[in-house]
Amino acid sequence: MARSVSGPEIERLIQLLAKLPGLGPRSARRAALHLIDRKEELLVPLAKAMEVAVERIVVCSTCGNIDTSDPCMICTDPRRDAGTIIVVEEVADLWALERAGAISARYHVLGGVLSPLDGVGPADLRIDDLVQRVSAGGVTEVILAVNATVDGQTTAHYITDRLQGLGTKVSRLAHGVPVGGELDYLDEGTLAAAIVSRTPF
Fold first, then answer.
1. CATH number assigned to the domain comprising residue 132
2. Are the C-beta atoms of 94 and 64 separated by less than 8 Å?
3. Nearest of 102, 103, 105, 121 to residue 113 by alpha carbon
4. What is the pLDDT of residues 139-159, one digit of tens each?
5. Average of pLDDT values for 18-46?
6. Is 106 helix (H, G, I), strand (E, B) or coil?
7. DSSP letter assigned to residue 147
8. Are residues 25 and 80 in the same domain?
9. Model-level pTM greater than 0.90?
10. Residue 141: what are its φ and ψ, rounded to 5°?
11. Are residues 47 and 85 in the same domain?
12. Is residue 145 part of a domain?
């Protein structure tokens, strides 16, 4: 059994860092040591930034984006095309599309994809909210920018069925997005080309 070489506060920091994506126990220890070595430069500002984030960051009740205001800056930006809604799985996908800068539209974050094996059904996602937004009128196109995975495509088909009869064009990203690929890992050029070359669903 490994012995602890530091106090419980440092061990707690390492344990929390190890829960972040891409960080295992060894990486978490290195990250913790790096933060501690640069306490005034990194650790203190990071702690303050996280405290502010806990207090101020909210989920937009309209689209599901995260921001410090509700509705978020994207939903309240009058320069954006309110008639176009881009549907994404997660906020990271929204950020990836924004980095690409290919289109100035509104978004809708589902919060995941349909996955019967994982017990994720339509009620677990923000699909009903999307249908309500489209039903309210003014939306001319819904762009399904979900990942090209089996679950992503199942979700896209389900949403398309739900939006039938509402008089809104439904399109999807072009096949330039590789099958099995995830938006957050694609470069901006690929995403921009996929948006411009979107096809009817």
1. 3.40.1360.10
2. no
3. 121
4. 999 999 998 888 999 999 999
5. 94
6. strand
7. -
8. no
9. no
10. -145, 140
11. no
12. yes
Residue 93 CA to chain centroid, in angstroms? Answer: 4
Q: 119 in the Ramachandran plot: left (φ > 0), alpha (ψ -120 to 50) or beta?
A: left
pLDDT in tens, 44-84: 999 999 999 999 999 999 999 999 999 999 999 999 999 99
- Left if phi > 0, otherwise alpha if psi is -120 to 50, otherwise beta: which for 7? beta
Query: Which of the four pLDDT bands, split at 50, 70 and 90, describes residue 199?
Result: confident
Angle at 98 between CA 93 and CA 100, to 5 degrees: 100
- According to the model, what pLDDT value does residue 176 have? 63
* Angstrom distance (rounded) from CA 56 to CA 199: 39
Are 75 and 128 part of one and the same domain? yes
Is pLDDT of 26 > 60?
yes
**Token representation of residue 126:** 């923000």
Nearest CA among 97, 95, 129 for reference residue 110: 129
Question: 125 with 188, same domain?
Answer: yes
Look-up of token digits 């999807």? 172
Question: Looking at the chain, which runs of residues are DSSP E strands?
Answer: 58-59, 66-67, 81-88, 105-109, 141-144, 169-172, 199-200
Q: How far is CA 95 from CA 36, 72, 188, in A?
A: 30, 13, 11
- Which residue range(s) make up the domain with 20? 8-56
Token pair of 37 as six digits: 């070595």
- Domain presence at residue 157: yes
Structural domain count, the chain:
2
